[in-house]
């Protein structure tokens, strides 16, 4: 019998893992995630928000496992008759999902999403930057291939590394119907990633905006069929309100935490400070190394950038972070800016420019709910599938994009 280990987690209590997963967690690439904060410099506003990609990644593995186990239990006949999976197939896919969930964020840059604008371009002047998912796929294929394929535990499964990266959207892998199905547990409207970070970010920020009934959500997840007879992960028709509450939790976290005006300006400051650190450290482009230079890329984490800032390689914005002397918001529009807003922003920007004072216009935006990836509400009694936006007028109205604008200025008046 393989050894079992456990670690105490602030969200789930205890999380268990096996020898292979422990070896992956102990790898230096994974340990790097201890030095990448989940929410960048959000602790400048919410002091408790110091949690990292490390604990989030382990948490996503647990959440994905809980979701998968409940789906298998609730949809056992569907799995046997429609998916044609026996017990060994069920256990094999569970292992693939756990590995993909554990490694899904392995490629994040320093300061998480705040660092993504420092990713290099795919091609000069094409405007498209590499994304952290592309780094994750490259790291898994190179640094974790042996730990996945050659580990003694894999004798029971025969898993290939491409089966793991397929669940992360690896374009080089031809995905089968199972990969397309289980990929939604890693990245989708009902994914384990989102389900974990809402609870975890709320806990560490000390707010209740991202709280939802986790147990109810998990126990309402089932497998259903689309009109074209494709399998889909859905919510039982009696659980539509828990799906609605998950979407509401995400809306509240974005509007109250992720789009907080002070938190947003620190994303701007760390972006510019990190770029200066990179330039002053010999990277003239001001960008991180590309995915084909993984050894160089993996040397960068929050500590490396903060060390550069502390050694005064972060320029003016590094000093701003050190002294917590951030730009102040001097003008903010409503959700949809008016013509008068645009004129006022232009007027203020010009006035501050003439005075030699730096400004920054921020336009945080996201879709609260993507109708093209609607959550399915499935009736096992009738075998029919409806979309959540059909049932919930609240969710349907949340598909709009936030277009609020904020003008910031440095404190020199």
Topology:
Layout: E1 4-9, E2 13-18, H1 19-26, H2 28-31, H3 53-74, H4 76-81, H5 87-103, H6 132-143, H7 145-149, H8 161-166, H9 177-186, H10 192-205, H11 214-219, E3 221-225, E4 231-236, H12 240-258, H13 261-280, H14 294-297, H15 302-310, H16 315-323, E5 328-332, H17 339-354, E6 359-362, E7 376-379, E8 384-387, H18 388-391, H19 393-397, E9 406-409
Parallel strand pairs: 4-7
Antiparallel strand pairs: 1-2, 3-4, 5-9, 6-9, 7-8
Helix pairs in contact: 3-5, 3-10, 5-9, 10-12, 13-15, 13-16
Across the major sheet, the strand order is 3-4-7-8
Assembly type of the shown chains?
single chain
Share in helix: 40-55%
Overall mean pLDDT stands at 93
| CATH fold descriptor of the largest domain | Hypothetical protein af1432
Order of helices and strands: EEHHHHHHHHHHHEEHHHHHEHEEEHHE
In total, how many beta strands? 9
* Distance between the ends: 69 Å
Q: Can you tell me the CATH superfamily of the largest domain?
A: Hypothetical protein af1432
- Return the CATH architecture of the largest domain: Orthogonal Bundle
Query: How many helices in DSSP terms?
Result: 19
The biggest sheet, with number of strands, parallel, antiparallel or mixed sense and barrel status, is: 4 strands, mixed
> Unreliable runs, pLDDT <50, ≥5 residues?
none
> What gross morphology would you assign?
globular
Number of domains: 2
Q: What class, by secondary structure content? A: alpha+beta
Taking Cα atoms only, what radius of gyration do you get, to the nearest Å?
23 Å
Q: Quick one: CATH class of the largest domain?
A: Mainly Alpha
What percent strand?
A: 5-15%
């Amino acid at each position: 019998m393989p050894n079992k280990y456990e670690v105490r987690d602030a969200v789930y209590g205890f999380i268990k893992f096996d020898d292979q997963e422990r070896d992956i967690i102990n790898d230096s690439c994974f340990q790097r995630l201890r030095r990448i904060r989940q929410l960048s410099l959000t602790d400048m506003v919410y002091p408790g928000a110091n949690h990292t990609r490390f604990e989030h990644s382990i948490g996503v593995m647990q959440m994905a496992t809980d979701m998968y186990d409940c789906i298998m239990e609730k949809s056992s006949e569907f799995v046997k008759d429609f998916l044609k999976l026996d017990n060994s197939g069920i256990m094999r896919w569970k292992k693939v999902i756990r590995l993909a969930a554990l490694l899904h964020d392995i490629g994040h840059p320093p300061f998480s999403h705040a660092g993504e604008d420092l990713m290099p371009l795919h091609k000069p002047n094409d405007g498209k930057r590499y994304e952290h998912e592309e780094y994750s796929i490259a790291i898994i294929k190179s640094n974790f291939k042996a730990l996945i394929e050659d580990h003694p535990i894999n004798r029971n499964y025969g898993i290939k590394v491409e089966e793991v990266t397929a669940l992360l959207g690896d374009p080089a892998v031809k995905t089968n119907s199972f990969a397309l199905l289980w990929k939604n547990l890693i990245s989708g409207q009902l994914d384990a990633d989102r389900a974990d970070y809402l609870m975890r970010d709320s806990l560490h920020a000390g707010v209740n905006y991202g709280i939802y009934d986790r147990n109810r959500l998990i126990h309402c997840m089932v497998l259903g069929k689309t009109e074209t007879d494709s399998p889909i992960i859905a919510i039982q028709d009696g659980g539509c309100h828990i799906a609605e509450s998950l979407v509401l939790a995400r809306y509240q976290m974005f509007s109250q935490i992720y789009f907080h005006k002070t938190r947003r300006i620190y994303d701007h400051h760390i972006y510019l400070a990190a770029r200066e650190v990179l330039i002053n450290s010999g990277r003239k482009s001001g960008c991180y190394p590309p995915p084909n230079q993984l050894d160089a890329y993996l040397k960068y984490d929050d500590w490396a950038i903060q060390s550069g800032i502390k050694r005064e390689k972060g320029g003016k914005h590094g000093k701003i972070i050190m002294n917590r002397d951030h730009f102040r918001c001097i003008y903010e529009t409503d959700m949809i800016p008016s013509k008068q807003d645009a004129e006022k922003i232009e007027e203020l920007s010009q006035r501050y420019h003439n005075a030699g004072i730096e400004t920054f216009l921020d336009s945080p935006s996201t879709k609260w709910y993507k109708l093209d990836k609607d959550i399915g509400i499935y009736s096992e009694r009738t075998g029919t599938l409806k979309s959540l936006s059909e049932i919930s007028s609240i969710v349907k109205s949340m598909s709009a994009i936030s277009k609020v604008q904020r003008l910031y200025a440095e404190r020199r008046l």
